[in-house]
Description:
about 140 residues, mainly alpha, MetI-like fold, 6 helices
Amino acid sequence: MDFAYILEALPDLMTGLKMTLIVSFLAIFLSCLMGLLGAVLRTSGIKPLQYAVTAYVEFIRGTPYLVQIFFIFYGLPSLGMRFSIFWSGVIALTAWASAFQIENFRAGLAAVGRGMHDASASLGLSVCSRMAAGRGVE
């Protein structure tokens, strides 16, 4: 094994590791925010918003990830939206992961039974009682 080559390449590897960690952190953070927002909109009871979020989730989960990356990096500039390589990666990862996060959060909301909603309302948790006001999570 050629350790001299590894030591020579180590600064470049560390730069790549740093960039990977930054892109990953941003994509995870933004996808969790978008996932929570999307799940709330999907369970809101407002039909146009539910349909829009459902269409987004089905479209993103139904297309290959490589096609999404190519569209963001090569397709969006033809529509007048240019992003750097860094932000193209963050946007692609965020869009892909947020579709899965929406479903994760929606399933979590659906797992909370009616009894839990009633218990939270009896404790005076107004946000929970407003969410449970006659609506089930779909």
